[in-house]
Amino acid sequence: MTTSAVDSFLPEALQFRSGAPLVDIGANLTHESFQRDLVDVIARAKAANVTTLIVTGTDIEHAELAVKMAQQVPGIYATAGVHPHDASGWNSDVANQLKALHQQPEVVAVGECGLDFNRNFSTPAEQERAFEAQLALAIESGLPLFLHERDAGQRMREILHSWRDDISEAVIHCFTADRETLHGYLDLDLHIGLTGWICDERRGHHLRSIVKDIPLERLMVETDCPYLLPRNLPAKLKGRRHEPALLPWIVREIAQWHNVTETELGAVTTRTAQRFFRLDAET
Ligand SMILES: [Zn+2]
């Protein structure tokens, strides 16, 4: 009886199970849309063999919630940063609070942070200031970086280039840019996170042809849920909220364009994520 809710929410065609355990490196589980049924969401992820979830902390409030979640649920970890949208609120208080969060054992990366010149909710100058301050915090803690970039590829590369020798590792999460930007990032020795954007035959078309340029050991996978529900799912989903249990579908799509098996792609991206975020390799 207790599992009936878990079993009935996803239509049968969306009850995937990955051949290899997966790490969803970008799950916004502190989003209010998950409040009501978080326990079921996590149970469905486990049933799909998505064994590890990195919950994205986009500001102090959500990073603290992510840490709490990680303390309560095995297999969950947190990131702590200030999203470029919120960069206008950056000050020394915020910096100190982040610094304290980075000391928590549950926090495995600094971020999400970076540049978003697509919407400019904060000005580019405010974004660069908050971003560089967080690069400095990453050096202080030694943690890897979880980076967001939209329509700011060139500036991002310039800034990272000047910091590259001092920071440890960094992943460009939800990569959606072009081939030239991709190669710029790979030249900087960065990792690339791919989402269900690639499942969108209109917006994600260009990604399908450049995916093979990403060396398998530099690649990680993520849902960025509740956002970015894959457009080509084989069944309709009530409420259209994306969740970690659907990650195997994204892995299947990437594997197809990379010309490897789903299980192979799953296994290698999981190994990379465990190394990158320094997770206990119990999965
Ligand atoms: Zn993002």
In CATH, what is the class?
A: Alpha Beta
The total strand number stands at: 8
The CATH architecture assignment turns out to be: Alpha-Beta Barrel
CATH topology: TIM Barrel
Averaged pLDDT, please? 95
How is the largest sheet built, in terms of strand order?
A: 1-2-3-4-5-6-7-8
How does the helix and strand content classify structurally? alpha/beta
**Subunit organisation of the chains:** single chain
Parts with pLDDT < 50 across at least 5 consecutive residues: 1-5
Question: What percent strand?
Answer: 15-25%
**Portion of residues within helices:** 25-40%
Give the total of domains: 1
GO molecular function: exonuclease activity; metal ion binding
InterPro entries: Metal_Hydrolase, TatD-like
Protein name: TatD family hydrolase
Keywords: Cytoplasm, Exonuclease, Hydrolase, Magnesium, Metal-binding, Nuclease
What would your notes on this structure say?
With 283 residues, this protein is α/β, with parallel strands linked by helices. It contains ten helices and eight strands. It has an eight-stranded parallel β-sheet. Helix 3 packs parallel to helix 4 (92-101). The longest helix is centred in the middle third of the chain and has 18 residues, at 124-141. The chain is globular and about 50 Å long. Residues 1-5 have low confidence and may be disordered. The structure holds zinc ion (ZN). Residues 112, 148, 173-174 line the site of zinc ion. A divalent metal cation 2 binds at residues 148, 173. This is TatD family hydrolase. Keywords: Cytoplasm, Exonuclease, Hydrolase, Magnesium, Metal-binding, Nuclease. A divalent metal cation 1 binds at residues 112, 224.
